[in-house]
Fold this protein.
Amino acid sequence: MLSGLFCLSFPTTRRFSAAAFHPLQESFALRLDSSTTAHKTSISIAEVDSLSLLGHNDRHLDLIGKNYGINLVVRGEKLLLDGPATGVSQARELLTHLIARLRQTPRLSGEEVRALIARELQQGDPAPAGEGEGAMRTYKAAVRARSNGQAQYLKAIEAHDIVFAIGPAGTGKTYLAVAAAVAALRQKQVSRIVLARPAVEAGENLGFLPGALEDKVDPYLRPLYDALHDLLEPERLKRYQDMKIIEVVPLAYMRGRTLNEAFIILDEAQNTTPQQMKMFLTRLGSGSKATITGDITQSDLPREQPSGLVEIQKILTSIPGLAFCYLTDQDVIRNPLVQEIIKAYERHEQAPDPGPARQGR
Protein backbone atom coordinates (compact mmCIF):
# COMPACT_ATOMS: atom_id res chain seq x y z
CA MET A 1 0.00 0.00 0.00
CA LEU A 2 2.93 2.31 0.48
CA SER A 3 4.84 2.23 -2.78
CA GLY A 4 7.39 4.73 -1.54
CA LEU A 5 8.48 2.83 1.55
CA PHE A 6 12.08 1.72 1.96
CA CYS A 7 13.79 -0.53 4.48
CA LEU A 8 16.76 0.42 6.61
CA SER A 9 19.30 -2.17 7.71
CA PHE A 10 21.12 -1.85 11.02
CA PRO A 11 24.63 -3.33 11.05
CA THR A 12 24.92 -2.97 14.82
CA THR A 13 22.67 -4.26 17.55
CA ARG A 14 20.60 -1.65 19.36
CA ARG A 15 18.71 -2.30 22.60
CA PHE A 16 15.84 -0.52 24.28
CA SER A 17 15.17 -1.28 27.93
CA ALA A 18 12.30 -0.85 30.30
CA ALA A 19 14.75 0.81 32.67
CA ALA A 20 15.49 4.53 32.43
CA PHE A 21 17.88 4.91 29.53
CA HIS A 22 21.16 6.82 29.69
CA PRO A 23 24.20 6.25 27.45
CA LEU A 24 26.53 5.85 30.45
CA GLN A 25 24.17 3.37 32.10
CA GLU A 26 23.39 1.23 29.06
CA SER A 27 25.18 -1.92 30.26
CA PHE A 28 23.37 -1.72 33.59
CA ALA A 29 19.99 -0.90 32.07
CA LEU A 30 20.07 -3.90 29.76
CA ARG A 31 20.39 -6.47 32.53
CA LEU A 32 17.12 -8.19 33.41
CA ASP A 33 16.67 -10.46 36.39
CA SER A 34 16.42 -14.03 35.14
CA SER A 35 13.23 -14.53 37.13
CA THR A 36 11.46 -11.86 35.04
CA THR A 37 12.75 -13.00 31.64
CA ALA A 38 10.03 -15.45 30.68
CA HIS A 39 9.68 -15.09 26.95
CA LYS A 40 11.55 -14.12 23.78
CA THR A 41 10.19 -13.57 20.28
CA SER A 42 10.98 -11.67 17.09
CA ILE A 43 9.12 -9.63 14.48
CA SER A 44 10.23 -8.98 10.93
CA ILE A 45 10.48 -5.30 10.03
CA ALA A 46 11.71 -5.92 6.48
CA GLU A 47 8.48 -4.78 4.79
CA VAL A 48 8.13 -1.33 6.35
CA ASP A 49 10.01 1.93 6.69
CA SER A 50 12.08 1.14 9.77
CA LEU A 51 12.60 4.80 10.60
CA SER A 52 8.85 5.36 10.84
CA LEU A 53 8.39 2.26 12.97
CA LEU A 54 11.25 2.96 15.37
CA GLY A 55 10.66 6.69 15.56
CA HIS A 56 13.17 9.54 15.57
CA ASN A 57 16.12 8.47 17.70
CA ASP A 58 14.21 5.23 18.33
CA ARG A 59 11.66 7.01 20.51
CA HIS A 60 8.79 4.68 19.61
CA LEU A 61 10.65 1.57 20.71
CA ASP A 62 11.87 3.26 23.87
CA LEU A 63 8.28 4.20 24.69
CA ILE A 64 7.00 0.66 24.08
CA GLY A 65 9.80 -0.89 26.14
CA LYS A 66 9.10 1.35 29.14
CA ASN A 67 5.32 0.82 29.04
CA TYR A 68 5.43 -2.96 28.70
CA GLY A 69 8.50 -3.62 30.84
CA ILE A 70 10.51 -5.42 28.16
CA ASN A 71 13.75 -5.11 26.20
CA LEU A 72 13.69 -4.55 22.43
CA VAL A 73 16.69 -5.30 20.23
CA VAL A 74 17.05 -4.38 16.55
CA ARG A 75 19.16 -6.85 14.59
CA GLY A 76 19.22 -6.22 10.87
CA GLU A 77 15.66 -6.66 9.62
CA LYS A 78 14.37 -8.28 12.83
CA LEU A 79 13.08 -6.78 16.05
CA LEU A 80 13.71 -9.01 19.09
CA LEU A 81 11.46 -8.80 22.16
CA ASP A 82 12.66 -10.09 25.53
CA GLY A 83 10.92 -9.89 28.89
CA PRO A 84 7.90 -11.08 30.88
CA ALA A 85 5.52 -13.16 28.78
CA THR A 86 2.58 -10.82 29.27
CA GLY A 87 4.54 -7.72 28.31
CA VAL A 88 6.11 -9.45 25.30
CA SER A 89 2.75 -10.70 23.98
CA GLN A 90 1.09 -7.30 24.39
CA ALA A 91 4.03 -5.47 22.81
CA ARG A 92 4.12 -7.95 19.92
CA GLU A 93 0.44 -7.36 19.21
CA LEU A 94 0.91 -3.61 19.30
CA LEU A 95 3.97 -3.74 17.02
CA THR A 96 2.17 -6.04 14.58
CA HIS A 97 -0.64 -3.50 14.41
CA LEU A 98 1.79 -0.61 13.94
CA ILE A 99 3.50 -2.45 11.07
CA ALA A 100 0.13 -2.98 9.41
CA ARG A 101 -0.68 0.71 9.89
CA LEU A 102 2.62 1.73 8.31
CA ARG A 103 1.57 0.01 5.12
CA GLN A 104 -1.26 2.55 4.96
CA THR A 105 0.29 5.67 6.51
CA PRO A 106 3.82 6.86 5.58
CA ARG A 107 4.61 8.45 8.96
CA LEU A 108 3.45 7.41 12.41
CA SER A 109 3.50 10.10 15.08
CA GLY A 110 4.64 9.60 18.64
CA GLU A 111 1.19 10.77 19.77
CA GLU A 112 -0.44 7.93 17.85
CA VAL A 113 1.93 5.37 19.36
CA ARG A 114 1.13 6.65 22.86
CA ALA A 115 -2.61 6.56 22.14
CA LEU A 116 -2.39 2.95 20.94
CA ILE A 117 -0.39 1.95 24.02
CA ALA A 118 -2.92 3.67 26.29
CA ARG A 119 -5.77 1.85 24.54
CA GLU A 120 -4.01 -1.50 25.06
CA LEU A 121 -3.42 -0.83 28.75
CA GLN A 122 -7.06 0.17 29.27
CA GLN A 123 -8.27 -3.04 27.65
CA GLY A 124 -6.23 -5.24 29.98
CA ASP A 125 -4.37 -8.30 28.72
CA PRO A 126 -5.49 -9.07 25.15
CA ALA A 127 -4.37 -12.25 23.46
CA PRO A 128 -1.49 -11.94 21.00
CA ALA A 129 -2.49 -11.07 17.46
CA GLY A 130 -3.67 -14.13 15.60
CA GLU A 131 -4.14 -16.28 18.70
CA GLY A 132 -7.09 -14.75 20.56
CA GLU A 133 -10.81 -14.80 20.05
CA GLY A 134 -11.89 -12.66 17.11
CA ALA A 135 -8.59 -12.90 15.23
CA MET A 136 -9.04 -13.28 11.47
CA ARG A 137 -6.28 -14.96 9.50
CA THR A 138 -5.82 -13.51 6.04
CA TYR A 139 -3.17 -14.50 3.51
CA LYS A 140 -0.62 -12.03 4.88
CA ALA A 141 -1.46 -11.35 8.52
CA ALA A 142 -3.88 -11.91 11.36
CA VAL A 143 -6.32 -9.07 11.97
CA ARG A 144 -8.28 -8.50 15.15
CA ALA A 145 -10.45 -5.82 16.71
CA ARG A 146 -8.73 -2.88 18.36
CA SER A 147 -11.75 -1.64 20.34
CA ASN A 148 -14.94 -2.98 21.91
CA GLY A 149 -17.00 -1.51 19.11
CA GLN A 150 -14.87 -3.22 16.49
CA ALA A 151 -15.13 -6.52 18.39
CA GLN A 152 -18.93 -6.32 18.33
CA TYR A 153 -18.78 -5.44 14.63
CA LEU A 154 -16.75 -8.56 13.80
CA LYS A 155 -19.06 -10.74 15.88
CA ALA A 156 -22.02 -9.35 13.95
CA ILE A 157 -20.35 -10.15 10.62
CA GLU A 158 -19.78 -13.71 11.77
CA ALA A 159 -23.32 -14.20 13.05
CA HIS A 160 -25.41 -12.42 10.37
CA ASP A 161 -25.76 -12.58 6.62
CA ILE A 162 -26.18 -8.80 6.27
CA VAL A 163 -24.44 -6.23 8.46
CA PHE A 164 -24.61 -2.44 8.29
CA ALA A 165 -21.63 -0.62 9.84
CA ILE A 166 -22.24 3.07 10.41
CA GLY A 167 -19.65 5.35 11.96
CA PRO A 168 -17.11 8.12 11.44
CA ALA A 169 -13.92 7.92 9.42
CA GLY A 170 -11.05 5.97 10.95
CA THR A 171 -13.12 3.39 12.83
CA GLY A 172 -12.03 0.50 10.62
CA LYS A 173 -15.41 -0.14 8.99
CA THR A 174 -14.07 -0.92 5.54
CA TYR A 175 -10.74 -2.46 6.54
CA LEU A 176 -12.31 -4.97 8.96
CA ALA A 177 -15.01 -5.87 6.42
CA VAL A 178 -12.38 -6.58 3.76
CA ALA A 179 -10.33 -8.58 6.28
CA ALA A 180 -13.39 -10.65 7.19
CA ALA A 181 -14.06 -11.27 3.50
CA VAL A 182 -10.47 -12.35 2.80
CA ALA A 183 -10.48 -14.61 5.87
CA ALA A 184 -13.74 -16.21 4.70
CA LEU A 185 -12.27 -16.78 1.24
CA ARG A 186 -9.13 -18.30 2.73
CA GLN A 187 -11.24 -20.69 4.83
CA LYS A 188 -13.35 -21.54 1.75
CA GLN A 189 -16.52 -20.24 3.39
CA VAL A 190 -17.17 -18.26 0.19
CA SER A 191 -15.92 -18.70 -3.35
CA ARG A 192 -15.42 -15.04 -4.27
CA ILE A 193 -15.34 -11.47 -3.00
CA VAL A 194 -17.10 -8.52 -4.60
CA LEU A 195 -16.27 -5.02 -3.39
CA ALA A 196 -18.48 -2.19 -4.63
CA ARG A 197 -18.44 1.56 -4.17
CA PRO A 198 -20.60 4.32 -5.65
CA ALA A 199 -18.64 6.73 -7.83
CA VAL A 200 -21.00 9.56 -6.96
CA GLU A 201 -18.15 12.08 -6.68
CA ALA A 202 -17.49 11.63 -10.39
CA GLY A 203 -21.04 12.49 -11.39
CA GLU A 204 -21.39 13.42 -15.02
CA ASN A 205 -17.73 14.43 -15.19
CA LEU A 206 -16.71 10.82 -15.93
CA GLY A 207 -17.09 11.47 -19.63
CA PHE A 208 -14.48 14.19 -19.51
CA LEU A 209 -11.82 12.02 -17.86
CA PRO A 210 -9.27 10.21 -20.08
CA GLY A 211 -9.23 6.45 -20.59
CA ALA A 212 -11.78 3.66 -20.50
CA LEU A 213 -14.55 3.56 -17.89
CA GLU A 214 -12.42 1.34 -15.61
CA ASP A 215 -9.65 3.94 -15.68
CA LYS A 216 -12.10 6.71 -14.88
CA VAL A 217 -13.64 5.07 -11.82
CA ASP A 218 -10.41 3.52 -10.52
CA PRO A 219 -9.53 6.50 -8.25
CA TYR A 220 -12.85 6.08 -6.44
CA LEU A 221 -12.16 2.38 -5.82
CA ARG A 222 -8.55 2.90 -4.69
CA PRO A 223 -9.28 2.61 -0.91
CA LEU A 224 -10.62 -0.90 -1.51
CA TYR A 225 -7.51 -1.87 -3.46
CA ASP A 226 -5.37 -0.50 -0.62
CA ALA A 227 -7.04 -2.81 1.90
CA LEU A 228 -6.66 -5.81 -0.41
CA HIS A 229 -2.94 -5.14 -0.93
CA ASP A 230 -2.53 -5.12 2.84
CA LEU A 231 -4.16 -8.55 3.22
CA LEU A 232 -3.02 -10.53 0.17
CA GLU A 233 0.30 -11.05 -1.54
CA PRO A 234 0.55 -9.05 -4.80
CA GLU A 235 0.84 -12.17 -6.97
CA ARG A 236 -2.17 -13.84 -5.33
CA LEU A 237 -4.27 -10.67 -5.58
CA LYS A 238 -3.51 -10.26 -9.29
CA ARG A 239 -4.28 -13.93 -9.94
CA TYR A 240 -7.57 -13.76 -8.04
CA GLN A 241 -8.58 -10.61 -9.89
CA ASP A 242 -7.75 -12.16 -13.26
CA MET A 243 -9.88 -15.18 -12.28
CA LYS A 244 -12.69 -12.90 -11.04
CA ILE A 245 -12.41 -14.47 -7.59
CA ILE A 246 -11.98 -10.90 -6.31
CA GLU A 247 -13.78 -8.05 -8.03
CA VAL A 248 -13.64 -4.34 -7.25
CA VAL A 249 -16.42 -2.62 -9.18
CA PRO A 250 -18.51 0.55 -9.24
CA LEU A 251 -21.94 0.04 -7.71
CA ALA A 252 -23.59 0.47 -11.11
CA TYR A 253 -21.93 -2.78 -12.25
CA MET A 254 -23.99 -4.73 -9.70
CA ARG A 255 -27.30 -4.23 -11.49
CA GLY A 256 -28.83 -7.41 -12.90
CA ARG A 257 -26.44 -9.78 -11.10
CA THR A 258 -27.16 -12.55 -8.59
CA LEU A 259 -24.15 -13.45 -6.48
CA ASN A 260 -24.00 -16.90 -4.90
CA GLU A 261 -21.43 -18.00 -2.29
CA ALA A 262 -19.92 -14.51 -2.27
CA PHE A 263 -18.82 -12.04 0.36
CA ILE A 264 -20.08 -8.67 -0.90
CA ILE A 265 -19.05 -5.32 0.54
CA LEU A 266 -20.66 -1.97 -0.26
CA ASP A 267 -18.40 0.86 0.88
CA GLU A 268 -19.31 4.56 1.19
CA ALA A 269 -22.98 3.52 1.29
CA GLN A 270 -24.03 6.98 2.48
CA ASN A 271 -23.60 8.00 -1.16
CA THR A 272 -26.23 5.57 -2.44
CA THR A 273 -29.79 6.55 -3.22
CA PRO A 274 -32.63 4.45 -1.72
CA GLN A 275 -33.12 2.81 -5.13
CA GLN A 276 -29.43 1.90 -5.37
CA MET A 277 -29.46 0.47 -1.85
CA LYS A 278 -32.47 -1.73 -2.71
CA MET A 279 -30.74 -2.85 -5.90
CA PHE A 280 -27.60 -3.82 -3.99
CA LEU A 281 -29.36 -5.73 -1.21
CA THR A 282 -31.37 -7.78 -3.71
CA ARG A 283 -28.18 -9.05 -5.41
CA LEU A 284 -27.51 -11.60 -2.64
CA GLY A 285 -27.82 -15.20 -3.69
CA SER A 286 -27.48 -18.51 -1.89
CA GLY A 287 -24.66 -18.76 0.65
CA SER A 288 -23.71 -15.09 0.36
CA LYS A 289 -22.93 -12.47 3.00
CA ALA A 290 -22.99 -8.69 2.68
CA THR A 291 -21.47 -5.88 4.72
CA ILE A 292 -22.53 -2.30 4.07
CA THR A 293 -20.34 0.50 5.47
CA GLY A 294 -20.72 4.24 5.55
CA ASP A 295 -20.61 7.52 7.44
CA ILE A 296 -23.97 9.27 7.29
CA THR A 297 -22.35 12.58 8.25
CA GLN A 298 -20.25 12.70 5.07
CA SER A 299 -22.67 12.30 2.17
CA ASP A 300 -21.69 13.58 -1.27
CA LEU A 301 -25.25 13.36 -2.60
CA PRO A 302 -27.11 16.52 -3.60
CA ARG A 303 -28.77 18.16 -0.62
CA GLU A 304 -32.27 17.29 -1.83
CA GLN A 305 -31.37 13.61 -2.46
CA PRO A 306 -32.04 11.25 0.49
CA SER A 307 -29.34 8.75 1.37
CA GLY A 308 -30.06 5.06 1.01
CA LEU A 309 -28.03 4.33 4.15
CA VAL A 310 -30.15 6.75 6.19
CA GLU A 311 -33.43 5.45 4.78
CA ILE A 312 -32.58 1.78 5.27
CA GLN A 313 -32.38 2.25 9.05
CA LYS A 314 -36.10 3.10 9.01
CA ILE A 315 -37.09 0.31 6.61
CA LEU A 316 -35.24 -2.74 7.98
CA THR A 317 -36.16 -2.46 11.64
CA SER A 318 -36.95 -6.02 12.72
CA ILE A 319 -35.75 -8.49 10.12
CA PRO A 320 -33.83 -11.50 11.51
CA GLY A 321 -30.50 -12.30 9.91
CA LEU A 322 -29.22 -8.74 9.67
CA ALA A 323 -27.63 -6.33 12.13
CA PHE A 324 -26.80 -2.65 12.47
CA CYS A 325 -23.48 -1.75 14.12
CA TYR A 326 -22.80 1.82 15.17
CA LEU A 327 -19.16 2.76 15.70
CA THR A 328 -18.15 5.97 17.48
CA ASP A 329 -15.13 8.20 17.99
CA GLN A 330 -14.02 5.73 20.70
CA ASP A 331 -13.33 3.23 17.90
CA VAL A 332 -11.14 5.58 15.84
CA ILE A 333 -7.68 4.04 15.33
CA ARG A 334 -6.14 6.86 13.31
CA ASN A 335 -4.17 9.79 14.68
CA PRO A 336 -5.64 10.80 18.08
CA LEU A 337 -6.43 14.22 16.61
CA VAL A 338 -9.06 12.51 14.42
CA GLN A 339 -11.06 11.65 17.56
CA GLU A 340 -10.97 15.27 18.69
CA ILE A 341 -11.95 16.52 15.21
CA ILE A 342 -14.95 14.16 15.14
CA LYS A 343 -16.04 15.31 18.61
CA ALA A 344 -15.70 18.95 17.61
CA TYR A 345 -17.90 18.46 14.55
CA GLU A 346 -20.50 16.60 16.64
CA ARG A 347 -20.62 19.48 19.14
CA HIS A 348 -20.94 21.97 16.30
CA GLU A 349 -23.79 20.03 14.64
CA GLN A 350 -25.67 19.61 17.93
CA ALA A 351 -25.38 23.29 18.91
CA PRO A 352 -28.54 25.36 18.33
CA ASP A 353 -28.49 27.48 15.21
CA PRO A 354 -28.13 31.13 16.29
CA GLY A 355 -29.66 32.26 13.02
CA PRO A 356 -28.14 34.59 10.45
CA ALA A 357 -25.69 37.06 11.93
CA ARG A 358 -26.62 40.69 11.70
CA GLN A 359 -24.27 42.97 9.93
CA GLY A 360 -23.49 46.26 11.60
CA ARG A 361 -24.04 49.50 9.82
The chain has twelve helices and twelve strands. The longest strand covers residues 39-44. Residues 1-37, 124-133 have pLDDT under 50 and may be disordered.
